[in-house]
Amino acid sequence: MINGKEIEIVAKKIHTDNPGMTFQTATKYAEKNIINRKKNQTILFIMPINYSYTLLNQIIKDSNVSLKIDKEFVEPDPSRKNLNGKNQKLQIKKKQEKDFCKSLNLFYSHPLGILYLAGVARACGFKVEILDLHKNFCEMIWNKKIKHESIQSFMYDKIKKKILLHNPVLVSISCLFSMASEVAHDVVTFVKKIDTNVKVLMGGGYPTNSPKETLSDHNVDAAIIGEGEDAFNEILCSLDKYSPENYFHNPAIATQQSLDKKIKPIGDKIKDLDNLPYPAWDLLDNPISYITGTNRTRSYDLKEKRCVSLYTSRGCPFYCTFCASHTVHGRKLRLHSLDHIFAEIDKLVKAYDINLLLIDDDIFNFNRKRTIDFCKGLIDRWGNRFEIEFPNGIYIPTLDDEVVGWLSRAGVKDVHIAVESGHQYTLTNIVKKGGLTLEKIKKAIDILNKYDIIIRNFFIIGFPGETKEMIRKSLQFAADLNSDWTSIFIASPIHGSDLYRIAHEEGYLDNSKNDKNKLENRHYLRSTLKTKDFTSEELEELQYDANLQINFINNRNLINKRYDRAEALYGDLIRIYPDHMFANYCYWQSLVGQNKLKDSKIIEDKLKVLLKNPINIKYVKKYNLFNKEPFSSFLSKYEIESANVETLVAPKWQLM
Ligand code: B12
Ligand code: SF4
Asked: Closest ligand 2 atom, CA of 318?
């Protein structure tokens, strides 16, 4: 029997920790909290490695580490020495000659969805543990401390340790992307192998869009559809008598049994965002150690940048063909109040001294007044403490002089903008980017330049309905923009997007090659569509060529003699891809342009070494650079003549 006084005390504490929450909601949590706390049960959240095995294969190859993908993984025999960390096999392969175009950029972002759910679990009185396998994996590769034979044994080991230590009653797995589904299912298998009785939930974009596939794995007890907080709350409160039938009334909790009963999975959309508990940042192992946003490409000392990700609104009213975000977060824009966001930032400043905000909203600046008020509020409270970034792109049509001025004053120095296409017909009728015109793009870029903000464009090519000519025009538009960087992605029919529906209905999925169209292999780095207008190979060629032309050979900063900016951008790139010949070449130009001759000599020597790789010579020939310094001094006529450019094929993975 719980008494009213006890509830009030706990409710007050919950309310103080989550000031945006109504006292009524805090009281509801308090009632659950008191009951559950006595049970002393733990909920374990797992973020699986967020890559497909195909990508992981490439990463392993590029990183020169001894690690395999073990599709037939069986629990290792612990008596074998190398599993105890002793007598390990050779961990790092002999350094292979590296082709500049093949490196992938490994990084890890804050698992925000998990943090929101962890906040709910904690308010409900459970102990919470988070295992971020993605982060652990990236760190292992970076540090080259490989103690395992395979990716599976690495995951198994980590999961086993966590489960044996904390004995959770529920394991909650996040799978945001379809491409990570195969790895996520392996994680589920391992969890159940280690503890057959534990309940396993999976939530995120993959189960939301593919509940049947998710639940065809009988180790998944329930797939949570859409925004998970409410459904998760319901399961938490009935864990002791967990049974699929108990959830038939709730279409956001899909089970094998509910699918058998033909109950259509429908996701929740949280109505009042401020009423949610704050994301449980303190349960994350060192939140500011996460490498995300341009943190992973910029040359500033990482220790100086302490960043968190924020999600200040949910949903987006637009209908971009390639996007699947609405399947989870819906098309109705819901906002956290600015007070709520500032209170969260305040906590994070006090706890971690943060100074970089990564805003992950779908469409943060949809409402220009809210954008300006946010900037003003930030400046009023914290002066110029922050830098702000929008890693998944800011919405262009509201970027007028006043908005950009405030964004700049509040700390935006480097911005990604979602251009998508440089062809008006494609933009309006194929991509369906709400309210965007080529004129608005150019105008926004002029304004961003006025405030000296680094501009990185996102482009997508290869939509059904686009011809090669339209793609070329789009890329020419990109080349002509006065911006710093252009990332060119390939339209990918991810589950839940209109593009997937169209591609499926019209037979555009390119199944000609091995596993290309497996769910897990669809992402913006690889072409998986084939229409009457292009093949997937042609698209990859176009993409790769445009990347080299726009970002390197005809780079805007080099053309405009903005050598200091070019030095910074290419310097960052070289830090990640030291063997990238074009990055070194452009870096060299930026140094020579500033008369930094001593430094440029070092890069010149490096280029000489890089030209030992025949692929690099072919690229020099392909782009007619052999008559230009410094290549003209390094390459003999014979070397140029014998380089066969015909054999060059675009690499499978684009760089940036
Ligand atoms: C940040 C982000 C990333 C980060 C990673 C985030 C992370 N920590 O893992 C990075 C930059 C790495 C990334 C990469 C990619 N991304 Co991304 N990304 C996002 C973004 C913008 C925000 C995610 C987020 O934090 N949301 C905020 C939290 C609160 O929401 P949430 O994570 O969805 O969690 C809620 C629910 O999903 C659910 N839930 C989630 N997990 C769980 C677990 C349980 C147990 C339960 C009960 C519920 C639950 O409840 C949560 C709370 O409501 C989304 C768009 C979006 N608006 O969500 C795209 C999005 C998820 N990405 C997408 C894609 C396609 C990609 C890429 C494949 C793109 C590419 N390059 O090809 C890559 C693949 C990843 C990779 N490893 O290479 C698609 C996924 C679509 C799909 N069906 O697969 C999205 C929806 C974007 C879009 N426009 O379509 N991404
Ligand atoms: S504006 Fe962004 S979030 Fe909205 S539909 Fe388009 S891509 Fe998706």
From this structure: 5
* Ligand 1 mean position, distance from CA 329 (Å): 10
Q: Whose CA is nearest to atom 8 of ligand 2?
A: 323
- Nearest-atom index, ligand 2, CA of 323: 8
Q: Which residue has the CA at smallest separation from atom 82 of ligand 1?
A: 177
What is the phi-psi region of residue 626: left when phi exceeds 0, alpha when psi lies from -120 to 50, beta otherwise? Answer: alpha
Q: What are the φ/ψ torsions at residue 490 (nearest 5 degrees)?
A: -110, 130
Q: pLDDT by residue (tens digit) across 570-620?
A: 998 888 788 899 999 999 999 999 999 999 999 999 999 999 999 999 999
For 99-113, write each residue's pLDDT tens digit.
444 445 678 899 999
Is residue 407 domain-shared with residue 304, that is, in the same domain? yes
Whether residues 587 and 553 share a domain: the answer is no
Look-up of token digits 């706890």: 351
The total of other beta-carbon atoms located within 10 Å of residue 236's CB is 22
In the reported structure, the alpha carbon of residue 165 is separated from the centroid of ligand 1 by a whole-number distance in angstroms of 29
- CATH, residue 147: 3.40.50.280
Partnered with residue 488 across adjacent β-strands are 459
- For residues 538-556, average pLDDT: 92
Instruction: Report the C-alpha gap between 590 and 594 in whole angstroms.
Output: 6
pLDDT in tens, 82-93: 433 443 343 444
Cα 416 to ligand 1 centroid, rounded to whole Å: 18
Tell me which ligand sits closest to the C-alpha of residue 420.
Answer: 2
C-alpha–C-alpha distance, residues 280 and 284, integer Å = 7
Whether residue 363 has its Cβ less than 6 Å from ligand 2: yes
The candidate with the shortest Cα–Cα distance to 191, out of 229, 152, 227, 225, is 152
CA of 319 to the centre of ligand 2 (A): 7
Pair (177, 254) in one structural domain: yes
Report the number of distinct structural domains present in the chain: 3
Q: Is residue 37 part of a domain?
A: no
CATH number at residue 546: 3.80.30.20
Look at strands 313-314 and 334-335 and give their pairing: antiparallel
Helix then strand count (H, E) for the chain reads 27, 14
Domain boundary among 515, 535, 560: 560
- Give buried/exposed letters for 435-469 (b at 16+ CB in 10 A, else e): ebebebbebbbebbeebebbbbbbbbbbbbbbeee
Pairing of strands 356-359, 307-310: parallel
Residue 585 lies in a domain: yes
Structure confidence by residue, pLDDT tens digits, 187-235: 999 999 999 999 999 999 999 999 999 999 999 999 999 999 999 999 9
* SS3 assignment, position 347: helix
Per-residue pLDDT, 100: 43
Q: Within this chain, do residues 391 and 495 fall inside the same structural domain, yes or no?
A: yes
Distance CA 492, CA 420 (A): 13
Between CA 234 and CA 232 the distance in angstroms is 5
Decide: 150 in ligand 2 pocket, CB within 6 A: no
Boundary of a domain, candidates 560, 588, 617: 560
* 119 and 61 co-located in one domain: yes
Residue type, 579: D
Same domain, 468 and 514: yes
Q: Within a domain: residue 280?
A: no
Q: Is the pLDDT of residue 655 over 80?
A: no
Cβ atoms 393, 436 nearer than 8 A: no
Q: Which range marks the domain in which residue 631 is found? A: 576-655
Choosing from 316, 395, 436 the residue with most ligand 2 atoms within 8 A of its CB, the one to mutate for a pocket test is 316
Cβ contacts of 327 within 8 Å, gap of 6 or more: 205, 208, 209, 226, 267, 496
In testing the pocket of ligand 1, which one of 177, 255, 326, 389 has its CB within 8 Å of the most ligand atoms?
177
